[in-house]
Design brief:
The chain is built from eight helices and nine strands. The protein has helices spanning about 1-15, 25-35, 85-90, 100-105, 120-125, 130, 150-155, 180-200; strands at about 40-50, 60-65, 75-80, 95, 115, 160-165, 170-175, 210-215, 220-225. The relative contact order is 0.26.
Length: about 230
């Protein structure tokens, strides 16, 4: 534990308390902080000037990260038999319907994303109590309820992520790994930030993006200069 504390202290010393950093500078610092063999995730936290309790201020969307997330995404497709081969060919890890519905009712949720189609949503909807709290419930808004299951699988495997503002008005999203090139981390983070900017609800008054921080799994948070994020 002392080693981690020492590493954290060294990382903190590299952050100028009186400075905010561009996305690219923050990406470079996070790579410098990496003192472990673990390929840590790089996360972006965006605090928004919205009230998530109001339906017209809920910010939710998807973004296709140019360089993917760096993690293997396990995909389950719940579909009718005529779509099964299409889903398998697109790279889905698990494909089926009734057998998987029963497995999920029994507590199995060993996947990262579930994709389904409108015609079987009645069966999938019954799993809401299990899937909802785990963030696995398919939703047309995020492209996970669709007739084109193959494209949905391909998009998710290629680095498409969905995000949603939490009850505190913050969006958290992983945009890569510390093993990525600095430029790739920067491009992924900027793609996320630009997408959030475009989703600004019409009713929001005042500052939309209040703060942006970047961090890796075991690093301190680095404040990002809002002038480098085209918002407000």
């Amino acid at each position: 534990m002392a080693k981690l504390t020492k590493n954290r202290k060294a990382a903190l010393e590299k952050i100028d308390a009186n400075k905010v950093y561009s996305v690219n500078e923050a990406a470079g610092l996070l790579k410098e902080f990496n003192n472990t063999k673990l390929d840590q995730s790089i996360d972006v936290a965006v605090r928004l000037g919205v009230d998530p309790r109001k339906a017209n201020e809920m910010v939710r969307g998807t973004v296709k990260l140019p360089h993917g997330t760096g993690k293997t995404v396990r995909v389950l497709v719940l579909c009718s038999p005529d779509k099964e081969q299409e889903a398998k060919d697109a790279g889905a890890d698990h494909v089926g319907l009734d057998d998987y519905v029963e497995k999920i009712k029994g507590g199995w949720t060993d996947v990262d994303v579930i994709i389904t189609m409108p015609s079987v949503m009645a069966k999938v909807g019954a799993l809401g109590r299990i899937l909802g709290p785990r963030g696995l419930m398919p939703n047309p808004k995020t492209g996970t309820v669709t007739m084109d299951v193959a494209k949905a699988v391909e998009d998710v495997k290629a680095g498409k992520i969905d995000f949603k503002v939490d009850k505190y008005g913050i969006i958290h999203a992983a945009v890569g790994k510390v093993s990525f090139d600095q430029e790739k981390i920067t491009e992924n983070a900027n793609e996320l930030l630009n997408t959030i900017v475009k989703l600004k609800p019409a009713g929001v008054k005042g500052t939309y993006i209040k703060s942006v921080y970047m961090s890796s799994t075991m690093s301190p948070s680095i404040p990002v200069d809002l002038k480098t994020v085209s918002s407000n």
